[in-house]
Structure prediction request, 375 residues.
Amino acid sequence: MKSKPNGKVKKLRLLLEFSKRIVAEKTSDGLLALLAEEAKSLLAADRCTIFILDKNKKILWSKVAQGSPSMIAFPWDKGIAGEAARTGKTLNIKNARKDSRFNPQVDRDTGYRTKSILTTPMKNLREEVQGVFQVLNKTNGKSFNKEDEELLAILARQAGAAVENVQLYEQVLEAAQDTIFRLAAAAEYKDKDTGEHILRMSRYTALIAEEMGFPPRFCENLRIASSMHDIGKLGVPDAILGKPASLNETEWVEMRKHTLYGAEILKDSTNELIKMSHKIALSHHEKFDGSGYPSGLKGEAIPIEGRITALADVFDALTSKRAYKEKFSMKETLRIIRDGVGKHFDPKVGEAFERVLPKMVEILHKHSDPAPAER
Ligand code: C2E
Ligand code: SIN
Ligand code: SIN
Ligand code: FE
Prediction:
């Protein structure tokens, strides 16, 4: 017997090699990219596309689209991919262009020429369709066969589980964010507060951090964590918080404690996000020149998250009406902030602020508090 490996053996080897890489892959996005690559090699296809089904919007959008620089999206009642998503059936088509279900728009958009298509639905463990796995153009000029169908079904099964994981993770994250925003809103003493203030604050801090070149994960954490900067105001008497005039010395002593109360609420967590909120609650009123509270920290001894939130907080306070003050004009706001650079604010944060100012103003207008008459 000859020992030359036949096609089956080669395929099994490939499958095994990919399995090793798949086990080592930690992110779901990476996993899907890998599965697409695997499908392309194993089935000798020219391209593989993975579409995710958005059941609410009834669209398919490409999560992985080999050879296509931009995302592909189309309604689920269109195309061969749409048919597979709606019926849950595998479709093996020799010449797509002669098939009435084919959606030629995708080729027009991507400049590709589709010939053979094998499309299989991606299902989760409850047999619900999550999306579609599609390989295009068998490279030997033939069309996809029964074995290809079986292989793609296996890969689609793995992909389905991966997509479900992403969605579960995103749901958990969303729920956590929602809880945090609600908690932060509850901490606001004004019952008429719309939560817009919190939304603005978190957008401002993330924007500045991005401009300063911090990595996406840091910016995203800061976005959420900064929404809790004033959570310690829960511990300050309403009479002080809502006083429509300047505070006297005893009231100020109380007011400044909101940083300590916030730190108390958020301390001792092992969660990355809550740890960051703890830092921010404690340090957002420290000043760069050391004249802030509660600790009089100076310069880079103040956590960067606190330095960024400090500027965003003042920008928001100045451009909003408070119980004790009216809104300032943009001109006056900028004068106060610019005057504070190097004294109140970190100059690096100040520089980034200047660069993102147009976007800050856009956020301010988009999320401004409703006019008093509407309240
Ligand atoms: P807040 O109203 O959110 O203000 C946050 C920060 O924005 C202030 O921190 C301050 O740095 C800046 N800021 C706010 N309004 C003005 C202003 O009219 N001029 C200037 N130059 N900066 C302003 P700060 O001062 O440590 O205050 C912390 C919190 O204490 C404030 O949060 C607010 O809740 C309360 N607060 C401050 N001043 C008064 C006041 O006169 N009356 C009352 N009832 N509360 C006050
Ligand atoms: C289709 O599913 O009808 C077209 C999809 C594609 O060409 O990628
Ligand atoms: C705050 O900054 O949390 C209080 C909101 C307000 O003063 O209107
Ligand atoms: Fe504060």
The pocket of C2E (ligand 1) is lined by residues 243, 246-247, 255, 285, 313-314, 317-318, 322-325, 336 (CB under 6 Å). The longest helix spans residues 146-187. The chain has 14 helices and six strands. Residues 163 and 169 are 10 Å apart (CA to CA).
